[in-house]
Design a protein that fits this description.
Number of helices: 1
Strand order of the largest sheet: 3-9-8-5-6
Number of strands: 9
Bound molecules: copper (II) ion
CATH architecture: Sandwich
Length: about 100
């Protein structure tokens, strides 16, 4: 786990749950990795683009839009519960679904 955390800037939200989790979703070979089984509000998602081209992690509902140059990563704190479809602005065929519970 420490190897995954290395290099990640982790800034907990002010109201973060004490048991907040860190999820890493890798993007490689023009695909999003598997969605975490359980995501709660207050958790952190690290989007890690290990692919050779740039991607984005963009919420269909507009709640987030993260640019991911090749071989880069960025993190976000999950703020609202619900189901959100995520796609890549450069490759609209890249999609995944995140299910967030309170
Ligand atoms: Cu893409």
């Amino acid at each position: 786990m420490l190897a995954i955390l290395a290099g990640v800037t982790f800034t907990p939200a002010v109201a973060a749950r004490a048991d907040a989790q860190l999820h890493v979703i890798e993007i490689d070979k023009m695909k999003f990795g598997a969605a975490p089984a359980e995501i709660h509000v207050g958790d952190t998602i690290v989007w890690k683009n290990i692919d050779l081209v740039k991607h984005t992690a963009t919420a269909r509902d507009g709640s987030f839009d993260i640019d991911l140059p090749r071989k880069s990563q960025d993190s976000m704190i999950v703020k609202t519960p619900g189901t959100v479809e995520v796609y890549c602005r450069y490759h609209p065929g890249m999609v995944m679904t995140l299910v967030v519970t309170a």
